[in-house]
Amino acid sequence: MKLFFRETQNAALIVMGIFSAAYGIHGFLLSSDLIDGGVTGISMLIAQTSKLPLALLLPVINVPFVVLGYRHVGRPFAIRSALGIAGLAAVLATVHFPDMTSDLVLTSVFGGIFLGAGIGLAIRGGAVLDGTEIAALLISKRSSILRVGDVILGLNVVIFVVAIWVLGVDKALYSILTYVAASRTLDFVINGIEEYTAVIIVSPESNAIRESITWKLGRGVTVYKGEGGVSGAPQDILYCVVTRLEIGGVKSIVRDIDPAAFVVTHSLSDVDGGVLKRGIHH
Questions:
Q1: Is the pTM of this model over 0.85?
Q2: CATH classification of 196-267 is 3.30.70.120, yes or no?
Q3: In what order do the strands lie in the sheet with 234-243?
Q4: Residues 6+ apart with CB under 8 A from 53
Q5: Every domain of the chain and the residues it spans
Q6: How far apart are CA 64 and CA 68, in angstroms?
Q7: Which residues partner with 221 through β-bridges?
């Protein structure tokens, strides 16, 4: 029953993602000859230069990446991705979306927002509508230098340099704006308002700070046993994970107890388990 509910939820997210991405592409970008980055951008660029239908190019160009996903990520992921990409192609070929605006700035921003939201919803449903992330992940695993972000950035630099030559400087720059809007929206859809952040606190008042964070914010706190690098004295190091909306609350608690405390924060790409939701109340 749980599996059925989870797969139904995944399917709903992928379907919403398909229609959002199709709306961004068909309702904004295509009529203005703008493109996005990644495999979607390559497909759109080829469609504009060859006059081949985008609905055909998207699944064809994504096939190798879906195969890689099948081999290295898993069968369920590959099946959901294949269905998602085929669904996006089918919607682009059969559903008519009215052209929303001729203003290139509005087209770039809102086309990117809808496209990024669509890709993000599909990812939350356990699939991809663009094979770029699969290729980047596999390349980064085989390289000690390149990271996923580096591979994606390098690919998109090549795409937009080609776009300058094919589309012209103005439309290439608007396409970069589309990519930025899509990337930011994708990040927000995946991480949401509850993007998690790790907080490391070093203070002689660690016990009081730990208790205050636990009872006021309802967050779990892990205590590492360390020692001062110069003094060699024993030192408790606090580690907790909060949402970005709670970072201010944590810092306020720390400063009220120990204004001289050393606090470090950094974003997390994924969090699971532990005390991530409010479960303790003052």
A1: no
A2: yes
A3: 221-227, 234-243, 196-202, 262-267
A4: 47, 93
A5: 2-191, 196-267
A6: 6
A7: 240
